[in-house]
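Cross-posting from the modeling subforum.

Setting up a comparison between two proteins and wanted a second pair of eyes on the formatting. Protein 1 (sequence, then structure tokens):
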Amino acid sequence: MKRMLAVLCALLICGWVVYIAVYDRPPGKFDSGPAAEISPKTQIKVALHDWTQNLEVKNAIERYNQTNPDQIEILIMDISTDVYNDTLNMLMTSGQGPDVFSVDNEWLATYVNKDYLANLSPYLEPAELSRFPEWAVDLADRSLFKGGIYFLPASVETLRFIYNKDLFRSAGLDPEHPPVTFAEMKDAAARISEAGVGVNKHGFALAGGDGQESLETGLEMSGTYSGIYHYSYRTGRYDLSVYKPWLQMVLDIKAQGSLYPGENLLKRDTALRQFAEGNIGMMYVTSKDYVKLQEYMPKPEWGVVLPPAADSSKAWAGALMMMPQSPLVVNALAPARTEAVKVWKFLQSEEFLTLLYRQGLALPVVDGILDTPAGTGGLAHFKEFYPTQVDSIYPLTPQIMDQYDPSTVSIEPRASGDRSRMQLYLQIIAGEKALDQALKEETERLNQMLDIADTGYYFKREEYIYPGFDPRHPLLAENLLKSLRGRRN
């Protein structure tokens, strides 16, 4: 009996010891108070035109969500690239827009003037501004943007001309000497198509199905290398007749059967895939297209060069225009603006931009990222898209003019008549409008809108006139407005 009692006591003592070890409290000492509350995370909706499908980008955002001390959670909105601009516009118009998002350059002025965007000036320290090149801060600080800072370009988009070396060889062309003039480009397109009859090979492709993007790059941006642009910075007037040689070249290429068929409906992604398959000899691309092209794993040997000039005398008559890559902005209606700005800063940080650069997704112009040793060693041809002394940002052209056009009824964001101008180019290439007359009429329309805009309160024509403009050094000239203010002072 005594032994049984001793065993029972021993079991009770063991149980008590185990209880304390597991629960870290003696019996009967339970905490009757409420459990400690975990602070809910602040969710910030983010929409990006590119990047979101990249695994490394997804991982970086997930790490931020797990490690940032501010209990912020980034939620990436799933918006298809093909309909990104239209979807974003509908969301912003309805007041349901993302908190942080990338916006096309041509929409910036419209969004600022509609009070869609938050002024970031109160959140930026001088040290943060000093990361950005002078042109980026000057661009963001223009009176067009109400004197605030609503965005800061951190990366650029460059333009290049790519060609299929294998098709050049098959056509009897020197693969190490691509065309440098419009005439040589037309001849190369003809020879490639002739050599590729019956095997679906075409000399040149123009992805007109994406309208504005392809024509803005292939025609307007590439023309700057020949010193050609539809807006004269010296006089502050438009003249689209300067594009007659390029449009005539495309019409000739089409007439000789060297243009990839269905150009008005051809999507950029489709054209890039066809180039990667070896079916296209030449096309214009930007650094933004690079990743998509690499995804398609080009089969042929290919090259990357500067675009052909109008003729040999015009090569590098002007700097080749590069564009700020779709800037990031913060929604003025973001419920948690402070947290949204923190996310904006994270997406603009050296760490995140370096990741984009190493994935071939961006060409950052901050923090010396492009000088990182072996930063993109595994990406063939990517260095050929790096900005050079030939490339340059250009001053702004008038951006908010179509609101003055009596025939314009669309509520969509517009800039300098871009949409109607791009549609006009396509109509000319399709043979629907006569070349000379169409360019003359659009020139008159743009200048008429410019004159009407000049009677308004916000538009200052002098801000867009650069009497000493040098096309080879676009950022050195001072606009007329600054000159006049300087004289008064």
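Protein 2 (same layout):
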Amino acid sequence: MQTQAQLGLRAQRVRDITYYLLLILSFFSIINYMLRELFGDLPLLGSLIPAWKEGLIFLLYLMFYLKSKAEGRIDWKASRLHWLILFTFGATLLSAVSNWIIHPSVLKISPTYHWVEVTASMSIVIDGLRTLLEASLYFLVLNALIDDEDTIKDMVHGMIVAATLVAAFGIYQKLAGWETPPAWTYSEVEKGIKIRVFSSIGNPNALGGFMVLITPIALALTLWAKNWTHRILYGSATLLMLGCLVLTYSRGAWLGFLAGMVVYTIITRNKWLAVVGVAGLIAAPIVAESVVARLTLAFTPEYWNKASEGGRVEFWARALTIFKEYPVFGTGIGTVGDSVATRHGVPGATWIDNQYFKLLAETGIVGTLTYVAMVFTPVINGIKSVFGSKQRDTFLFALNAGIVAALFGMLVENVTAAIFEDLNVITHFWTLVALLYVSIRIQSQKAKA
């Protein structure tokens, strides 16, 4: 029989181990890059590196089990979002079952348009489920594990430090004169763009997505900071990330960030930020000519002609045509486009460059509606919490407002690219969702105290 002191010591050890695992998660972008660079090419060991994230998830769940055992109860702190994750999992499985029953076809666009039958093999289904939902496991365990504001602060500061280092590396690429493939800029209007920085992430759109997730938080904390030391630190990180975001030349990331900041300005009722934003938009054609040129290029006949022949517009039309043929359950997860379909060599697979259109084609209206409800629910809950909060001068209020802006910006960016398929982006997305839910819960407890 263990004494109360022994149980308390065990609980403290579990908490200490959990804390360091959470810090590892906070520096995910850096650690993942270092593991790939240092060990990725080594025989045998290199093939195991991609599984380190599953190892981290396993250890976090082990800590939750030990914490629950020490407390004598299991409390997942269930919410509507938990059910939506489960429903999305079920709807995705239904799309696979539908594929096995009806044997659908997808539209292949090369060399000519024609329909080809696709089969959602078990490996494709598992890979599709993993890509779509594995990262939500972070939310489920973090929401149950984290219960104090100090841990949240340390995790957020870790993510800001990591994102700042990633941003600094991206800016260094620009200053050092690195160049990127010409395919990343395909118009004469953009001939002056020699590099779209990609930093340690490896892709400018994914890097832009990472900046969209962390920059609003750093900016929110800059505006909240109570002393000049903190303002300078948060502000410097914000400026570096903004600079990196601009240098990605990712239209989707720019639009996502702007959309997020509009939401932030509204829910925080920050009139001064609204004035600064309007002034920035007015001055943009003068101070950021290349940025405006790349944005406005999307509305030119040149862009639409190219996008309609082997580009976004053609891929979107293909996905919607497939959806019209199989509107209820789609053709099956992983059978139409983006990373899973291309990785498994599915006939006709292309990059759809729209997370929602891809899901319409693969999982139909059932899967897409459950998915949209799942990813938008945290944003709606966050908006309600921030907009109705009376504790407007606290760290958690500022953090929650920044997270809401980040999450909404990411949902907007996924209209122009399937950024959620990037491991770094989706890991941070669900981690931030967990921090948002824990923060709201802590604020509610403080309000009742």
